[in-house]
């Protein structure tokens, strides 16, 4: 029944979902149907959806693992699939195929791609291949759009000291939004760097900054044990 639905002339969501259920039961016809849709369907949305379903299947077993991995690698390299490439590359890395991490690193460091896509690739790389994340993520730390999330992602890599990167962010705070300054300053201040306190007080004292961010800065000062924080918070509640 599922095989007939997957091969039939149904709305693409139903047909692809049926193929995914079939594949999930170990039936090779399901994988074949998903692969055909992901690689060759005329509708880009269908291709992306089928690619995501393929990526969610997990390890198909020794007999077909290489062919499955080759399909994922081909999809991950397809620029038309946009954000689905991240999901597919991550699935490839989960199979133990080095092409997955390589693709994630390429996506994370490609300045021609959308920031959201790059960030998702960046975070996946930290989770799945921390040994490759360090060099790849260091490359994007200088990118204004990704600077803060890149350092946060690097901080998740076990054994990696990111103190200097946080300090560099504090030095470059003029290029950050007030919201980001508060986040960076709180992190830097929590590491004992006095610039954190200075940056937070600067946000609180700036009348052009949105009041919500100024209040966040005052709360961060209180969390850091700054003696002026109580008065600053009181001023925002009057």
Fold blueprint:
Elements: H1 2-7, H2 12-24, H3 28-40, H4 44-55, H5 65-76, H6 84-94, H7 98-108, H8 115-128, H9 130-140, H10 147-155, H11 163-171, H12 178-190, H13 194-205, H14 211-223, H15 229-237
Helix pairs in contact: 2-3, 2-4, 3-4, 4-6, 5-6, 6-7, 6-8, 7-8, 7-9, 8-9, 8-10, 9-10, 11-12, 12-13, 12-14, 13-14, 14-15
Bulk shape? elongated
Portion in beta strands: under 5%
For the termini, the CA-CA separation is 68 Å
Q: What would the average pLDDT be, to the nearest integer?
A: 82
Oligomerization: single chain
H/E topology pattern: HHHHHHHHHHHHHHH
Radius of gyration: 23 Å
Helix share of residues? over 70%
Low-pLDDT ranges: 1-8
Q: Structural class of the secondary structure composition?
A: mainly alpha
Biggest sheet record: none
So how many helices? 15
Number of strands: 0
General description of the model:
This protein has 238 residues and is mostly helical. The chain has a domain of 78 residues. It is 71% helix and 0% strand.
